[in-house]
Amino acid sequence: MAEIITGKGLDRTHIKSKLMAESLVDKRVLKTTATDKEINILPDLNVIGIGGHSILDRGKSAVFPLIDEIIKNKGQYKMILGVSGGARTRHIFSVALDLGIPTGGLAHVAGASEEQYEKMLQALLAKHGGIQLTKDHIWDIPHKLASGMIPIMIGMPPYHYWEQPPRQGRLPMNGSDFGLFIFAEAMGARSMIYLKDEDGLYTDDPKKNPKAEFIPKISVQELLKRDLPDLLIERMVLETMMNARHVKAIYIVNGLKPGNLTRALNHENAGTIIYKAE
User: Fold this and answer.
1) Which of 84, 94, 49 is nearest to 195 (CA)?
2) In the structure, what pLDDT confidence band is assigned to residue 35 with cuts at 50, 70 and 90?
3) Of 25, 33, 148, 179, which is most buried with the most CB atoms under 10 A?
4) What is the DSSP-derived secondary structure letter of residue 58?
5) Domains (ranges, CATH) in the chain?
């Protein structure tokens, strides 16, 4: 039972704890909350981000082989699929920018556009246990996974009008890649895999620069230090990885090539691995 502390010169009633009467923004207090006992809520979960622009926009020629591979791995691995909006999000951003909608509004409508791909993918996987996962039903995940379902969610984090002002321009900094990463971190997931239309990370966009060099493996510290002109993944993912306690590596693979997802689920390097150096 909690111990109630009153009197003794205190100007208010407290519940006895190590944070009693402490400022929760004091650096010294924050340091005392560090622990190595933080649990992994779902340590056997694999979060798979399916690029809207990279994969889903291409239609059945790209999506159907990927669905076959997901079904093939369903019995061995517990998976949650995350989608981004691709051309839909780009179009709605363009219209919203022209209308003068602020960044918080852009973040709000981006998630709504991703729901279209969420519904399409759920329809394609329905007979195999595909089911939509809304943010309000996060705590139903263990039941859904134990029942053999494949939850499908949007990647955009639910900051909405609470989205922080971006450092450059007006587009939200916390996009779909970041939303899926922070979800995987919160769940203590086994893997965070991003399916793109490139073989992995390059020193520049290989579609525009044929001299761009492939990077098979790199620490997030080194990658941030390089400050490359173009990245295949949102920079906020890399910055957040620096403080991650559960997801210490992410896999970026070409989802257009059958077998790459399976290799990444097996923790093989099927493209690029970005890891947090201790």
Assistant:
1) 49
2) confident
3) 179
4) G
5) 40-275 (3.40.1160.10)
Backbone angles phi, psi at 250, to 5 degrees: -125, 150
Question: In degrees to the nearest 10, what's the CA dihedral of 177, 178, 180, 181?
Answer: 110
- Which of 243, 114, 250, 231 has its CA nearest to residue 184? 250
Beta strands in 51-190 (DSSP E): 78-83, 130-132, 150-154
End-to-end CA separation in angstroms for the chain: 39
Query: Given the DSSP bridges, would you call strands 14-15 and 4-5 parallel, antiparallel or unpaired?
Result: antiparallel
Burial label, 50 (beta-carbon count in 10 A; 0-12, 13-18, 19+): buried
C-alpha–C-alpha distance, residues 7 and 267, integer Å: 57
Q: Which residues pair with 215 in a beta bridge?
A: 201
CA 64 vs. chain centroid, Å, equals 23
**Residue 171 identity (one-letter amino acid):** L
For 145, the 3-state DSSP assignment is: helix
Residues 18-28: pLDDT tens digits? 666 567 777 77
| Residue 136 to residue 42: CA distance in whole angstroms | 17
> Cβ of 166: how many Cβ atoms within 10 Å?
15
Q: Residue 1's pLDDT is what?
A: 57
pLDDT, mean of residues 46-65: 96
In this prediction, residue 200 carries a pLDDT of 96
Rounded to two decimals, the pTM is 0.91
